[in-house]
Amino acid sequence: MSVQYKWSEIKKHNQDNDAWIVIDNKIYDVTKWRHSHPGGYHLIHFYAGQDATEAFTCMHPNKKKPKILKQLKLLFIGTVEDTIEKSEMHKDFEKIGEIIEENHWYQPSVLFFFLQTCHIFLLELLSYWIFWNYGWNYWSAPFGIFTFLVALGQTGFLGHDIGHRCYPNLENFEYLIYFFAPFMWNIHSWGREHYKHHAKPNDIFKDPDRLEQDFMFFVGEMKPDKVTKPPVYLRYQHLMFIVIWIFPTTPVFFVYLTVKTLIETRFTPYNLMFLIPLSRFLLFNVNSIGWMNSFITLFAASALLNMWLFVAFTSVHLTMPATNDDGDRGPLHWVLLQMETTTNYINSPFIDWFTGGLSYQIEHHLFPAVPRQNFPKLQPYVQAFCAKHNIPYIRKSFLRSLADVFITLRKSAFTWEEFIKATKFE
Known about the structure:
Blueprint: E1 4-5, H1 7-10, E2 14-15, E3 18-23, E4 26-29, H2 41-46, H3 53-59, H4 66-75, E5 76-80, H5 88-102, H6 110-134, H7 140-163, H8 173-180, H9 187-199, H10 208-216, H11 237-264, H12 275-318, H13 334-340, E6 344-345, H14 349-354, H15 361-366, H16 375-388, E7 395-396, H17 398-422
Parallel strand pairs: 1-5, 6-7
Antiparallel strand pairs: 2-3, 3-4, 4-5
Helix pairs in contact: 5-16, 6-7, 6-12, 7-9, 7-12, 11-12, 12-17
């Protein structure tokens, strides 16, 4: 008979050097193993002392695979004594997971990803063709930059799919994408950061996207106990966020992430594959428009790309409430955590393409391992679930989402300005 522990005891094991997690009322000591976790040790730490059942299930649809079961068996130390009966919401959410399994919606479409990769590669070649045939002039420059920008943007969404392992499980498929897609970064290094966002979205201490926002801006109404003198642009952050954050950070971030990854992985052949599209870019463009114009093309496209990805990713979270595991409400149930911090765009073929399928952010956050081409099939079940349990299912138009970003930053600026005045910084 296994040892039983009460929740009052389990919750104490929430430290880096003492971490227990609960999955299906079984307790696992992951203290020594957390650094071996393929998704990064932070995800383990985020759920230390908590019930990680839904997070584990939704991020590991293959949880019954022998390798995973064997690892769990090695970490098992006991069961929960004071188990909490599953709510009707919990049971209904599990039913949606069963529907996904029954309909094989975790299986990606080979044809979809083949067409996706081809259209990216053709857009990149079109950009080179424009510069090769027409050089650098008042009309070819914007058209060439635009087509290269679109190729970069769609590459970003394809990289997001790969990061979630939502691509065909074919031998060397990922290597082919690295070859054909322009400037694909190291997905696995980025994925570890992105998984943290999914595990605790909008958490003021755990979500890297939220931390990045709070580093540059003041968002929300939560105030720290201590605050250093703020940047002078605070009261104008709703006007300055594009200039301060979006334009300068993409090229800098790209170089930083590339160099960091190469150093950490000791220049392995896998991580050097990004040099293939970079060499292709330089080979075509330097010969047709020169070094300077090639640099302008890369910088302009990458800066505009950051605006694009900001709209697709960040605007659906930034306007939603911040969360905090250590707050009065404590850790939220997986469903409530995702629903309270995420919105959808109102869908259309263009918006779905423009956002790389992330117009279905709610479905994506509830079930991160479902490939994007299956979101439209999943959406009716999620909407019916939310309606039954009175959970707001928020959908906004593209323009409404942008307006809300502006309003949120302005409201936060007012809130923080009053706080700063009270602390006598002025």
